[in-house]
Every structure is written in C-alpha cells, then in structure tokens.
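My main concern about presentation is that the manuscript never shows what a single data entry looks like. In essence, backbone conformation is discretised, so a fold becomes a row of integers matching the chain in length. An entry of this sort, consisting of the sequence and the corresponding backbone structure tokens, reads as follows:
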Amino acid sequence: MVTLLIVEDDALLLDALSGQLTQQGWSVLTASSVPQARAALQAQAVDGVILDLGLPGGDGIDVLTWARKHIEGLPILILTARDGVDDRIRGLNCGADDYLTKPFNMQELQARLGAMLRRARQPAFTQASAGPSSTVGSLEIDHGAHSATLQGQELELTQREWELLELLVQRVGEVVTRDDVLAVWHANPPEPGQPATALNSNALEVYVHRLRKKLDTSSLVIRNVRGLGYMLAKPAP
C-alpha cells in the first residue's frame, strides 16, 4: 500500500484530505508543522508527500530542501494558497515534483499524485536503487541481463513479461497497480523484433496469466487485489 505524508496546518483541511485519501486506499501520515514533518520523515519511509508552504516552525520550502538533501527521489507535491508565478517557480526550482494551488479539485489532486508516483517508479528512477540481482523464493532475476531463473532453470520471457515480473519482484508483498505497469510499458517501447502490443488493461491481464503459468511449478503466487492491481505474495519461510 502506498504511504503518503500530508503536511498541513489547517486542521479541517488536514482531516478532510486524510479521510478522502484513506477511503481511496492510501495509507496516510500527517504533520502540521516543519518540526513534525521532519520527525515523520525520519521515523518512517513514505512514498510521497503533500506539502503546504505556510507552516508553523518555518516554511514548507524548509521541509522540501531538507528532504532533497536527505531522502533521494522522494516525490513531493506542493499544495498551497500561494498562487503567484514567483512562488511556483521557487517551489519547483527547490525540487518540488508538482505544484497545486488552493482551492483545488480533489479528483485533480488524486490524478496528480498518481502521475507523480508513477513517474517516480519508472526505470529511470528505480534502476539505480535496484541491486544486480533479486531473489524471491526459488526465483532469481538478474536486473542487468534481463533474465530470470526458477528453480535453477532459465525462464523464457518476452520483454513485457520481463518488465512485469521485475516490477512485481521489486515490490514483492506490495500492490502493483495497473497504472504502475502501464507507466513502465509506456516508458519502454518494444525492442526490435518484438510485437507492438496494445498498452491497456486487457493486454496486462494476458501477461499476468502467462506469468502465472510460468511460475506454476513454484510456490510463488501472483494475486489479484480487487480494484487495485496485483501482488507477488511473499513466499512462506
């Protein structure tokens, strides 16, 4: 589950944001001042931040610059009443991934959050943090060689199957949404000689089915998470 930190000193807005995002399936942490925000970021890893600028104990830009120095690649969306062009430029130049002004539309906020988090998970962002290989149960994948072995036998994988499997392994035990997979596919056009598959949810279902068949001889299970996506379950110890 994706975890967000909301940094907002307006108690009513903080409560409303937290409630609506929680209903949409996000895990939410909250902070209402600069010191609380830093403490929260030091105490627990989060997948993204919604950041107000006018805060007690400093300014939201202080949180932004601190996070950029201490937490590499953390997606941060500024949500503020400061709607001047200079404010937008300053926020983006200081490292914000997106900037949305109040009052705002909740659906637009969720869309921007989703897009921001998808960008952060694309290979350009995740490749550096991935090790040379990963092992889950009897499955071992070599990130550099784009190959995988199951119980010592090499799996025959298409490019799309490989990209899906790598994403599931990198986030084993966590939900991978359909949008997450489609974002990776859009970022990686087919290699020469590979068919140009339509990038949609129906195609994704086909590739999930194929991977399940190829993992069938092991204890590894790709689960459907209703309304959200898929998860490679952690194997029993």
